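Sorry to interrupt, but I need a hand with the structure work. Could you add the entry underneath, on a fresh line?
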Amino acid sequence: MKRLKSRRTKTWAVCAVLIALTVVGVGGFWAYQEVQIGQLQRKNDEIIRVADARLAEIEAKKKEPVYITLPGAETFRVPVENFEASSNIWTLVSKARAIGTEYTPSELITASVSSHPGVVAGEKKIRKTIDEPLSQLFAAAQKDGHSLMIGSAYRSAAYQDQIFNSYVANVGYEQADRYSAHPGFSEHQTGLAVDISTTSQQCYLSECFIGTADGQWLSENAYKYGFTLRYPKGKEVITGYNFEPWHYRYVGVDLAKALKQSGLTLDEAWPYIETALQTLRDNRAVK
């Protein structure tokens, strides 16, 4: 009987020990799990913190201002845009850089200002973007005693093809190439270029226009309204075209002013614009 009680006591003791060990083991397991979960949570929080900091850094970089300084001109801040896009007001269209025959600008409207009575309806059209500054330019000229009109504005690639071939037929290819663009290479196709003359038609689309009071006023004041003389005298080798004191291109006031101050053409300023665009891309502000 005593042996039986002794065995039972030992059995209960062993069970108690086993139960105690089990409880300790389970408790230790969950304690370990809690430690692991805590560590994982801290790692997660750190990853999120680093990611948020990086995103904040990227967003800050996107908003970082980018500037252009042309030689001899005031520094100005560039807009956050892709200047190479066909629709951009700074896009370079030249003999070496086409806009493409398939391009047609959006929001073409008939210009609010006076136009030559002899031009076709399509040539009176401009991008809506430039209608207000063009009207302001003409109003300022009128106030100073100068009566201006546009001779030709938008031209489709197909119409430019007709014009170029007509010049070739009349004066030969080499001569035509000096003052007429090939289809897909004309600024007029952007809807941002306008041939401006005087309503008296004195020296109409002729180099002598620069010698008129209207031509002189335009040359001195067009930049204030965002227009630049695109093919100036002495820059023929750079632009590829003869001097055209009537051909103006809208680029916005900041760039037009800088071009006027520096004496550079859009072609010469283009490397500065490309550098600014690359900075915007590096900053992830534009693609």
The chain has a mean pLDDT of 88. Residues 68-282 form a domain with the Muramoyl-pentapeptide Carboxypeptidase; domain 2 fold (CATH 3.30.1380.10). The first strand starts at residue 67 and ends at 68. The radius of gyration is 36 Å.
